[in-house]
Write a structure and sequence with these properties.
36% helix, elongated, binds adenosine-5'-diphosphate, binds magnesium ion, binds zinc ion
Length: 507
Amino acid sequence: MSVATTQGISLTGLEGEIVQIEVDVSKGLPGYQLLGLPDAALNESRDRIRSAINNSGKKWPQTKVTVSLSPAWLPKSGSGFDLPISIAILSATDQVAQKNFDKTILIGELSLEGALRPVRGVLPMLISAAKHGMKRAIVPEQNFHEANLVSDISVTAASSLIEVLALLTGISHPRDIPLLTHEEVVTELDFSEVAGQEDAKFGLEIAATGGHHLLMMGPPGTGKTMLAERIPTILPRLDDLQAREVAAIHSIAGTQRLQQSHFKTPPFVAPHHTTTTVGMVGGGTKQIRPGACSLAHNGVLFIDEAPECATGILDALRQPLESGSIEITRAVGSTRFPARFILALAANPCPCGRFTGKGRGCQCSSIQVRRYLNRLSGPLLDRIDLRLTVENPTRAALAQSEPREASAAMRARVIKARQVAAERFTGLGFTLNSQIPSDQLRSQFRADSKAMSALHTLMDKEEITARGFHKLLRLSWTIADLKGVTVPTINELEAALNLRSNAERVA
Ligand SMILES: Nc1ncnc2c1ncn2[C@@H]1O[C@H](COP(=O)(O)OP(=O)(O)O)[C@@H](O)[C@H]1O
Ligand SMILES: [Mg+2]
Ligand SMILES: [Zn+2]
């Protein structure tokens, strides 16, 4: 009868903290006490652990068991502590040779039968564990694939408490578990599948290059969703760090992304317009989960039929749009998740969707139309540089037989233009044209004099607002970068104006 210590890990946002689990088994009336800010799920662990131990051919101690989790101030949540607690109990009761658990992290939930069940967030847990100097981890088999994305810690998978004991005592050796490879070819979406829509495609290429948020307006069935879904295919592939960060967020949310092989493609996340604020930005009562805006980190957040969103949902995006992250505050503490994405909104031109400016079959009054579009609040629209009109593709475009340009060709141009911009902004703390601060647009990053005076004339005639002035300049820079022009001229400005005014006429 003695004391044993194992290590688990607790997550706050993407950050993990090592938790020491100390079990003291002493003479006294049978009882079980859990100390150190456990949440409800952890408090329920006793029955699972007792049953799992009994069903694994081991004995639950008929004495006083005290489990203490430290640091005590840290709120601990989830069921991932089942495994380290059980091993500590078995070790304290001499049922497993008192091994040196130093530098080994144990993660997993136990079923009543003693099976090791997967938990959420294993990837960020192990990234943190490695940072804290841990050398080895034992994780549930279903989490093995994501756990292996962390290179600086040795990972062993197990499917039951019995297997963990066998591994710890050296009776059995780690099994070879086949890993999914990231190289597998998956049928990816491609812009070559979209007929016509040359203007919209050019608009999306601009958005991808400058990181501009955008709004697509057009009647149902014109291909807005189809176009939006293909934006990630023309963004640069994620580098290892970005891919891991995205995977870590998805690991906590428990989405399927980790099972997918296109792990380096920027994510595309499309919450339905009926989603809640928690669904959009994250939250939850027990464990704080990332929302759609964090799942879309380093990728695209697409909101179809955006004016249909309940009040407040779109406004909740203002914080991530401004700061690139979202802070969620709950009684248990506050958590920050990264949330830097390209926002793509789609809207019908009117409540019935048929409005084409020519009145075909649309009965909506102009007041109804205005009210519908006004649901997209001003502060949100302020952040949207690009408004695109999407019209029905012509029959000729649909029938066209020669091959259409593929996403790879568009992506190559995006990457090249992004490099030009990044070089221009060296040392300034931003890399994309959409991020140029307004004051620098008026000083360092002006267009040429003819374009600037054209912009001022438009302002004087009140055809554009100060905000429109800045958006047009940012877009002109992106168009210039795509065309290989060093400083935007009247041509790039006109191209930018053209993209905007089409949509403005509809609105
Ligand atoms: N330009 C296009 N080229 C090929 N197919 C198209 C095109 N536009 C629309 N479609 C077809 O119409 C369907 C509906 O398009 P969708 O993107 O859902 O429209 P929207 O989102 O504007 O309502 C698509 O799944 C696709 O099959
Ligand atoms: Mg759609
Ligand atoms: Zn209508």
